[in-house]
Write a structure and sequence with these properties.
Blueprint lengths: L1 E3 L28 E5 L3 E6 L2 E6 L2 E2 L2 H8 L2 H5 L4 E6 L5 E8 L2 E9 L5 E7 L19 E8 L5 E8 L2 E6 L7 E8 L2 E2 L4 E2 L1 H5 L2 E6 L9 E8 L6 E5 L9 H7 L7 E10 L2 E11 L1
Parallel strand pairs: 2-6, 15-20
Antiparallel strand pairs: 1-3, 3-4, 4-5, 6-7, 7-8, 8-9, 9-10, 10-11, 11-12, 13-14, 13-16, 17-18, 17-19, 19-20
């Protein structure tokens, strides 16, 4: 069975420039333009009969192959100008990519063809495309992002510097979070193994884009799991999470003491996932 699920975050922008090859301010020159269908693909062969789906809908083999044929255009793009289309052949995004990593200017479009978002990701001037995510050249927000109405009028702008949010002009009335930190004693817990007591001391800090705090209803989903065991998930408020009995949650799934298990904290607002954190736990 082959299953390809393509998930793309809707952060497609252009930073005050066109995609023309005469753009001397960019480190990239003479980039190739490629076409790609940003859709969900699924195929399965059973008893010599094929099942083909595009975005969850059953299609013919030939229709499936139409969309699947552009997969290589994305996987071998590094860098290139990638034009992303939906299943109706409508252009939805275009920009400078290395596979599915934004590495330069890009735009997102409304169905009528007008620009919806424009801005840029940080460029990679090194010429080295190995491990770009670890080296800080994948989807790193940069410069001015401009949001537009469907009729082409400007809504507002946001300003970023090397992935750090600066300001929103004018400030919007909708509450927006641009990142969430999970720390222990002021340090990130990324890549660390924690004890149950340390987990209860974790501090969750949301960073907001503006001063609006309307419609906030944060909940935490905490899950412990391990291969070969049934997972255990519970829901808390941010405050009540400090009273959770982590050891009991682990015991309930049958994992013996001393064994490292997986932990995940998911932060939601009104049921919508904002972000999640994965780490390991050892009793």
């Amino acid at each position: 069975m082959i299953q390809r699920i393509l998930l793309f975050i809707a952060f497609s922008f252009m930073f005050g420039r066109s995609f023309g090859q005469s753009d001397t301010s960019s480190v990239y020159k003479n980039l190739e333009t490629r076409r790609f269908y940003s859709v969900q693909l699924f195929s399965q062969i059973s008893n010599d009969k094929g099942i083909y789906e595009v975005n969850g809908k059953r299609v013919s083999k030939s229709t499936y192959e139409k969309y699947d044929s552009t997969w290589k255009n994305m996987t071998t793009c590094c860098p290139c100008i990638l034009k992303k289309y939906n299943e109706k052949d409508v252009l939805i995004r275009e920009g400078v990519y290395c596979q599915d990593c934004g590495v330069g200017i890009f735009k997102e479009f409304y169905p009528n063809g007008n620009v919806k978002l424009s801005g840029a990701y940080k460029e990679n001037p090194t010429g080295n495309w190995e491990n770009i995510s670890e080296r800080g050249y994948c989807q790193v927000q940069y410069g001015q992002w401009v949001y537009y109405k469907e009729n082409g009028d400007t809504l507002y702008s946001e300003y970023w510097n090397d992935g750090e949010f600066i300001k929103q002009v004018p400030e919007q009335s909708k509450m927006e979070i641009w990142k969430v930190d999970l720390t222990l004693n002021g340090e990130s817990v990324k890549g660390k193994t924690l004890t149950p007591e340390q987990i209860k001391q974790l501090v969750i800090t949301p960073h907001f884009k503006n001063s609006s705090r309307k419609n906030i209803d944060f909940i935490l989903k905490f899950e412990v799991s391990e291969v070969g065991y049934i997972s255990n998930e519970k829901t808390f408020t941010i405050d009540s999470f400090k009273q959770v009995d982590i050891s009991q949650m682990i015991s309930k799934i049958g994992v013996p003491k001393g064994k490292v298990v997986n932990g995940q904290i998911t932060l939601c607002n009104h049921g919508e996932i904002i972000t999640f954190f994965n780490f390991q736990i050892k009793r």
